[in-house]
Amino acid sequence: MLYSPLIMSILEVLIYTVSMLLIVAFVTVAERKTMASMQRRLGPNIIGYYGLLQAFADALKLLLKEYISPTQANIFLFFLGPVVTLIFSLLGYSVIPYGPGLAISDFNLGILYLLAVSSLSTYGILLAGWSANSKYAFLGSLRSTAQLISYELILSSAILLVVLLTGSLSLTVNVEVQRAVWFILPLLPIFIIFFIGSIAETNRAPFDLAEAESELVSGFMTEHAAVIFVFFFLAEYASIVLICILISILFLGGYLFSPLNSFIISVIHLFSF
């Protein structure tokens, strides 16, 4: 009985992490289908119904792929970089409130915690690019780091304006304050700036210069392959989902007006009578 709180905490983290990884997997499929539609292609449509299981096929291929590392690379830092980036990308989800009390850790400095964690993930990119002992990977890591730091200042400034309205660094308080009106209405210019900065922060087109596709390389991930490439891949899309959730919390009322929350409130009111 003494270990039951510890076991419950471990189960919560496991369920949370697996759910996030599944969401990230299907986001990759959604992006590939969207890009295919824009380019008048079919996209993934073989594995599973309408190609929905394509992400699992890609993950299996990368897990079974033979790993090749540069002979002159710093192997320890070469492996540590992707792990650091993935860990700090997933740590940001621990303070996200999906409903009243539905968060792993709902403390008063949630916004400050998110800013700190997102900043630390930059070190993984630097380590990966430098330790590969490749000029393409090193230049890619410098480009990516410069872009992340530059647009992070824009995101931080926009978030500070929201904090001035709420008077709190808590994400839950930020959501509850928007019961009267969403912040996107009084802060529409700030929302547009934040949205553009979010696209740059997640390396989406047209801000995907860090990958240097014109040079036919993958930026800081040029020398990475197989399993450790999966870490970078998951970290990138986990950051995309996290920034989308953050936009919803800061400007679109968060969980207040979600269909699931409305259904739960309706059921509670029904049984209260």
Can you put this structure into words, describing what you see?
It is a single chain. With 273 residues, this protein is mainly α. It has 2 domains: 1-64; 70-272, no CATH class. The chain has helices at 4-38, 54-64, 75-91, 110-131, 135-166, 171-177, 188-201, 226-251, 259-272. Helix 2 (54-64) packs antiparallel against helix 8 (226-251) and helix 3 (75-91) packs parallel to helix 8 (226-251). The two termini are 37 Å apart.
Question: Which properties best describe this structure?
Answer:
transmembrane; disordered C terminus; mitochondrion; 273 residues; mainly alpha; 9 helices; 0% strand; NADH dehydrogenase activity; NADH_UbQ_OxRdtase_su1/FPO; 2 domains; NADH_UbQ_OxRdtase_su1_CS
Shape: globular
Helix content: 55-70%
- Main sheet record: none
N- and C-termini, Cα separation: 37 Å
Percentage of β-strand residues: under 5%
What's the alpha carbon Rg, rounded to whole Å? 20 Å
Tally the helices: what do you get?
Answer: 9
- Structural domain count: 2
Q: Give the number of DSSP strands.
A: 0
What value does the average pLDDT take? 80
Note poorly predicted spans: 268-273
- Give the helices and strands as they follow along the chain: HHHHHHHHH
